[in-house]
Specification:
Layout: H1 2-25, E1 32-43, E2 46-57, E3 66-68, E4 74-79, E5 86-88, E6 92-95, E7 102-112, E8 119-124, E9 128-137, E10 140-143, E11 148-155, E12 158-168, E13 173-180, H2 202-208, H3 218-245, H4 255-258, H5 262-290, H6 296-322
Length: 323
């Protein structure tokens, strides 16, 4: 009887050890993404993507964790973490050093050359994502079973629209289809099949219907070409007269015309300073919340305000660099 009791106690202890080990083994990763701002800029050279991330680490060391990125990404740059703190591979970013406990702000920039002016982006989520915000210009329509269309807002005269999703589980693939909007003022209509105009061979119409000219007005291109020819003819006449007279010289470019505008440089520096200030304020805000100096309601409201400002600053910087 005593031996049976001892055996039962040993088996019970072994069962408890195995159960505890299994519970720790399947414990989900506590790392969460509080907010992921995804800024999409389609173009002929590919889809430019910027992600403004707010990570929340309750205490997991984070070493070896993988933050997935879309397949085929190139030209990755990361702000908010040292280069030795991560490695990039085909799947995304793998953290090689422990993450700081609490809130961390990251800004990722990369390009998807396989996606141009229209297509579909598959955005993987490796961690619980409380809020996903997708921003693009109003010239584009977004189709996604996961996202909900939100507000439209202007930045320097350019209209942007925001799409949202909430509480995305790890492993969720968010499919984001986008195309040029048929309601945009900058967008024409595609030439229909069988379109014919006297004097225009069908081979020319078929050629024009191919990308990237399919959604533009052929008469505008014709007017543009005639204008260029007229300007070229006028320049040739002026050059010929100047050469024959030998008196008038066309002034060459000066140093001032070859250098960037001082106003653009000053604006770029101001925007970079504003971006750094917002990131520093977000960091200070996280520290105040973690030490109990801020209520959660005030913390979330202020943090959302700073994140919205940060996205607008990134959009202004992008517009300045593309100008």
């Amino acid at each position: 009887m005593r031996k049976r009791l001892i055996l039962a106690l040993v088996l019970t202890a072994l069962f408890l050890v195995l159960a505890a080990t299994a519970a720790f083994a399947i414990e989900p990763n506590p790392l969460q993404i509080e907010q992921d701002h995804l800024i999409l800029s389609p173009g002929p050279n590919g889809l430019e993507v910027q992600e403004v991330l707010s990570l929340n680490n309750p205490g997991n060391p984070g070493t070896g964790l993988l933050f997935p990125l879309p397949n085929g990404y190139t030209g990755l740059t990361v702000e908010g973490i040292a280069k030795e703190g991560y490695t990039a591979n085909q799947q995304g970013i793998q953290f090689s050093q422990p993450l700081q406990p609490g809130q961390t702000q990251l800004i990722l920039s990369y390009n998807l050359p396989q996606i141009g002016m229209s297509g579909a982006l598959v955005k993987p989520t490796g961690f619980l994502t409380k809020t996903l915000l997708v921003v693009t210009t109003s010239d584009y329509d977004i189709q996604s079973p996961t996202l909900t269309a939100g507000e439209t807002f202007p930045v320097n005269g350019v209209s942007y629209r925001q799409y949202t999703a909430a509480n995305l589980n790890p492993g969720t693939d968010v499919i984001i289809g986008f195309s040029l909007s048929t309601q945009s003022g900058n967008q024409g209509s595609k030439l229909p099949a069988g379109y014919a105009v006297p004097g225009h061979p069908q081979t020319h119409i078929a050629l024009f219907s191919s990308e990237p000219l399919a959604y533009t007005n052929p008469h505008v291109w014709a007017a543009y070409l005639f204008a260029m020819l007229a300007l070229g003819l006028a320049a040739a006449v002026l050059w010929y007269r100047s050469r024959n007279r030998g008196k008038e010289e066309i002034p060459g470019p000066t140093f001032a015309t070859l250098t960037p505008s001082a106003d653009d440089d000053a604006l770029f520096l101001r925007l970079k300073a504003k971006q750094d200030l917002l990131l520093q304020r977000l960091k200070s805000l996280d520290e105040d919340f973690e030490t109990g100096q801020l209520a959660e309601e005030d913390y979330q409201a202020t943090k959302n305000k700073y994140n919205q400002l940060l996205v607008k600053v990134k959009l202004e910087l992008q517009q300045l660099l593309e100008a």
